[in-house]
Amino acid sequence: MSSIFEITHKDAAGRIGKLRTPHGTVETPTVMPVINPNLQVIKPSEMRDFGAQMLITNSYIISRRDKLREKALKDGLHSLLDFDGPIMTDSGSFQLSVYGDIEVTNEQIIEFQKTIGSDVGVPLDIPTPPDVPRSRAESEMETTIERLIEARSMVNDEMLLAGPVQGSTYTDLREKCASTISEHKFDVYPLGAVVPLMESYRYAELVDVIVSSKKGLDPTVPVHLFGAGHPMMFALAVALGCDLFDSAAYALYAKDRRYITSKGTYHIDNLSYLPCSCPICVSHTAEEVKKADNCSDLLARHNLYVTFEEIRLIKQSIKEGNLLELVEMRCRSHPRMLEALKRMYSYSDWIEKYDPASKSTFFYCGPESSQRPEVLRFSKRLERFTIKGTAVIRPFSMRTYPESDNDLMFKPPFGTFPAELSEVYPFNAEVIEDTDIESLGKALENTIRLIELNPDAEFTFIKGKELEHPLFEKLEKIADVKE
């Protein structure tokens, strides 16, 4: 395990961790509010009031402004921002992506970050946007890797060093980049150039980028999703193994009079009520916020409160083992997020490797739940059940049953298992009795396989009048199916 990062709790591929920095330990997952050194919407010294443990700012902007540069070089970054906690500094890669070129070299910006006392520095990587030709993505990835290796040779214990993973939307390049830079032992691994995907609601492709990058990384290292600042997608990203986020959204959205919630965004001018209980919303009406001279300030503060509320909820969900239930609820807030949920579960075999085998209770939240890693894990372990003699498979809602050698229970989306395990995770699942076709189909697939694994046993399946599925035709050939 990385000496600066300790994982304390896990759920799905998500985790709660402790990131040790020169200015203190940060509990992840967390969000680093972005501080514009030229225009501070909310003072850095106030950020702890909202729940911020760590900030991120731009070392390139500081280096290009005489007043900022001189104070940072003289008194240090933390004095410049008036913040005594950890601060990460970006290198100017965003400006590079916007303007095509900037007046600084990789070596210069690394030295500057070291000199001003950044806790986590970032090399001058090349953020390749989505959909570019593969040749460009590969060429810019190689340049990024060269710069990261150069930066690694320049930094020892002065600060932690980030190793951004690039590769555009080519998943094999993302995995290759992650695997290559992992050999050079960076301290934090940001996933770069994903903002365009989020801005265009291409969340399913974002899932591909995260998973392919994670596959190339050591699973114990901290991962930063660059530019991810909307709480609607935090749970999804955390469940895939992201630990750090950075948010300028709280200020940028406020400037456009937009009001953030964990389920989406409203324009303040369209709100009659404020659906939140943060200090801003309980002390103002919607009309008061709309008409306030400091409307942007009020919205920025609300947006930050909501951001960190979601982070706390995610941490609690990890501790309780129900992070995936939260993910499923959040992903139903927008059709593109629902696409991302389906894409995430296409990687259930990968998630299952990291998902704890024991939790409290599995809650079925809809058809997508039948693809969860817990269901996949059960499917893989069907051969562990040895059944001999007669066996009755009864619906989980049936309390009385015919006498037989084996009392088996049928509960979608898992399928068939010994009734004595009904109170053991995950068979203690809270599910709907009026099951949907996806859940029923997965359960029947597992049941058919269980019967096929035990050819010497005699199975009776008590169907129930409401259950209908094409797989019953196959089941009837290997078991006695009764209404």
Helix/strand-derived category reads: alpha/beta
**How much strand content do the residues show?**
15-25%
Q: Major sheet: size, sense and barrel closure?
A: 8 strands, parallel
How many distinct beta strands? 18
Q: What would you report as the Rg, rounded to the nearest angstrom?
A: 26 Å
Number of helices: 20
Termini separation comes to: 54 Å
CATH class of the largest domain: Alpha Beta
At CATH's second level, what is the architecture of the largest domain? Alpha-Beta Barrel
Poorly predicted runs of 5 or more residues: none
Shape: elongated
What is the CATH homologous superfamily assignment of the largest domain?
A: Queuine tRNA-ribosyltransferase-like
**What is the spatial order of strands in the main beta sheet?**
8-7-6-5-4-11-10-9
Helical fraction = 40-55%
Number of domains in the coordinates? 2
By CATH, the topology of the largest domain is TIM Barrel
| Overall pLDDT confidence | 95
Describe the overall structure.
This is tRNA-guanine(15) transglycosylase. It catalyses: guanosine(15) in tRNA + 7-cyano-7-carbaguanine = 7-cyano-7-carbaguanosine(15) in tRNA + guanine. One of its GO terms (molecular function) is zinc ion binding. With 483 residues, the protein is an alpha/beta fold. It has 2 domains: 346 residues, TIM Barrel (Alpha-Beta Barrel), CATH 3.20.20.105; 115 residues, no CATH class. It is 40% helix and 17% strand. It has 20 helices and 18 strands. The chain has an 8-stranded parallel beta sheet. Strand 15 and strand 16 form a beta hairpin. The longest helix is centred in the middle third of the chain and has 26 residues. The model has no long low-confidence stretch (mean pLDDT 95).
